[in-house]
Amino acid sequence: MEHGTRYVALFGAGTILSMLVVLRVIQRVRARSLPADQVDNAARRLLAVGEVLATFLVGAAVVHHNVRGESLQADLAWTAAFAALGLAMVQVVGGLSLRMLLRARLPEELASGNVAAGVAAASHLVATGILASHAVAGHSLYALGLAMAFFTLALVAHGLFVALFRALTTYDDAEQIEGENLAAGLSYAGVTVAVAVLIARGLEGDFAGWWVSLRGFAGVAAWCLALYPVRQIVVEGLLLGARPSLRGGALDKAIGTDRNEGMAALEATAYLGAALAIARLA
Fold first, then answer.
1. Rg of the chain's alpha carbons, rounded to an integer?
2. Mean pLDDT calculated for residue range 28-34
3. Can you tell me the mean pLDDT for 116-139?
4. Is the per-residue pLDDT at 108 higher than 70?
5. How far, CA to CA in Å, does 166 sit from each of 34, 44, 185, 231?
6. Residue 24's pLDDT is what?
7. For residue 139, what pLDDT is reported?
8. Cα 239 from Cα 269, distance rounded (Å)
9. Hey, what's the torsion of the CAs at 246, 252, 253, 258, to 10 degrees?
10. pTM
């Protein structure tokens, strides 16, 4: 069977649209379990934005990795299987991990319409989608198992690096986001997505045995440490014109005390830009 651009494009459109339909059903079912005043607030709309973006990322990756053009039946079967797996990764795993954020108070903050919490939640789902999109590949049950194993590894690494990085701030992220500090939410979103981009880069490539693959993953994941000088030197020193510091400094004051959303957006952009550049070049 010819494996052309039109064939892949049709598969991509069909897969993503199907996943969005399923996502919409999930959202409607979930809405029925919520009080009427909590269904459509700003925080939940932002959460939905994260879900939609994650679905696009996973859907495109599923088609890229699983559509080979050798057999229409095989392409349909494996695309459907990995699309379901990817959607489950974002919805189930992402949803469960959301309940652990902000000292397990995120559901309450979303219910109250806290926009900062909505930004943090949406970015977390986007990060989960980025990781899932690099794990959904293969044409066998063995590949399916590998996808789950490396996705789990990526989630653990992502959580550790984000926690390590956020420990550098002199303000308490959870406390600030609970206090509706949108600047803190934007800062958290930037590092969460940037770390996911770098961790996901370590999931690329063919499986070459556990030792080789794990060593390669660790080597790429270590690039997450580069976000520290990006924050303390590039953002604080070069872009803000302040004296660089090992911890805290002008950037922490701008976000934690002044709630400067522009500075937070600049910080988040620098993280994401650096992560994309490293992922492209590493």
1. 20
2. 82
3. 88
4. yes
5. 31, 24, 12, 11
6. 93
7. 64
8. 12
9. 170
10. 0.88
Give the per-residue pLDDT at 277: 92
40 has pLDDT over 80: no
- Three-state SS letters, the chain: CCCCHHHHHHHHHHHHHHHHHHHHHHHHHHHHCCCHHHHCCHHHHHHHHHHHHHHHHHHHHHHHHHCCCCCHHHHHHHHHHHHHHHHHHHHHHHHHHHCCHHHHCHHHHHHCCCHHHHHHHHHHHHHHHHHHHCCCCCCCHHHHHHHHHHHHHHHHHHHHHHHHHHCCCCCCHHHHHHCCCHHHHHHHHHHHHHHHHHHHHCCCCCCCCHHHHHHHHHHHHHHHHHHHHHHHHHHHHHHCCCCCCCCCCHHHHHHHHCCCHHHHHHHHHHHHHHHHHHHHHC
**Residue closest to 269 by CA, chosen among 230, 220, 222:** 230
- Round the average pLDDT of the chain to a whole number and report it: 85
Query: d(Cα 254, Cα 260) in Å, to the nearest integer?
Result: 5
Task: Please tell me the distance from the alpha carbon of residue 281 to that of residue 122, in angstroms, as a whole number.
Answer: 27
CB count within 10 Å of CB 114 equals 27
**What residue has token string 């956020």?**
166
More confident call, 124 vs 150: 124
Q: CA separation (Å) from 159 to 141, 152, 183?
A: 27, 11, 21
Cβ atoms of 269 and 227 within 8 Å: the answer is no
Between 141-166 and 72-88, two packed helices, what is the crossing angle to 10 degrees? 30
Kindly report the length of the chain.
282
